[in-house]
Write a structure and sequence with these properties.
The chain is built from 9 helices and 3 strands, in the order βααααααβαβαα. The termini are close together. By secondary structure, the chain is mostly helical. Strands 1-2-3 form a 3-stranded parallel β-sheet, with helices on one face. α1 crosses α5 and α2 runs antiparallel to α5. The chain is globular, with a radius of gyration of 18 Å. Helices cover 59% and strands 5% of the residues.
Length: 169
Amino acid sequence: MLLFPTIEKMAQSPQGRWLTPLLRNMKWLFMLIAAFLWLLPYTMKCRMIDYVFDKRGRRFPGTIAPCIKQGAHSAIDPYCLSNTLHMANLEMQEVDEINEGLVRKHIDKTRYYYGATDHWCPKQHYYDMKERFPDHDKIELCSDGFRHAFIIDASRPMAAKVSEWLKLL
């Protein structure tokens, strides 16, 4: 199952168009901010993380698990952030054209679930996949309003959906 699959044209996606230049030219700024944040007391970092998550206009209020906030805390570790930014920069460069041969080879074993408002994998990618593989009935467009980062605020509803799909196997 590929949920909100970023398997093509990452740098050309709406998120990629603004993030790619930042990854190439401004990594030092992200690292400087992370170093500053890392020096703050743990409780202050936790309050800042809570503030960021509470202000995001969550679709499913009260569903952000503590492990998500713990992950955000770990992500501002300068070493972790450096590796994350390096990987993101490589992805922007490498994830371009879809490998149609590979997809075709495994099409009967896969399900593609695209977001209707996904800024990493725009709705056009869904239409392109439907056009490339018109006979594959497991290419779907989300009608539930889940975001690309569904794990933050919709992990349970998405897990229920995946569970239903697995029962069909």
